[in-house]
Design goal:
alpha+beta; Phosphorylase Kinase, domain 1; two-stranded antiparallel sheet; 8 strands; 17% helix; 41% strand; ATP binding; Protein kinase domain-containing protein; Kinase-like_dom_sf
Length: 114
């Protein structure tokens, strides 16, 4: 079955169809905190990428306050539900999700070099 979003921890709506980018360690999509209404970025990790995702979450927690990315960080290791799907090449559900501040205006490297 195909679906375009998933709800994480009964609060965060991850929109796989709102694809932002990808790299060697995960795929980034738009997300929303359904309680506060705050837009987020969600980085989706496969089981093979989950260790890298946990490390990335720890790095983001440590750089909180450096004006790069607010440490709105929640690393969610997910139990795979019975219903799978794929939207725009993004496999749902991922093994883990890193939720962070949604920042516009380019990638992190570009912000560091500015």
């Amino acid at each position: 079955s195909k679906r375009s979003s998933m709800l994480v921890r009964e609060r965060y709506r991850v929109h796989a169809a709102k694809y932002l980018g990808h790299g060697s360690q995960g795929t980034v999509c738009r997300a929303l905190d359904e309680i506060s209404g705050v837009p987020l970025a969600a980085k989706l990790f496969s089981a093979a990428q989950a260790k890298a995702g946990a490390h990335e979450a720890e790095v983001l927690r440590r750089v909180d306050g450096c004006e790069l990315v607010t440490a709105y960080v929640d690393f969610c290791e997910l139990v795979k539900p019975s219903e799978d799907g794929e939207v725009s090449g993004v496999v749902l559900p991922p093994a883990s999700v890193l939720l962070m501040e949604f920042v516009t205006g380019g990638d992190l490297l570009a912000r560091l070099l500015a």
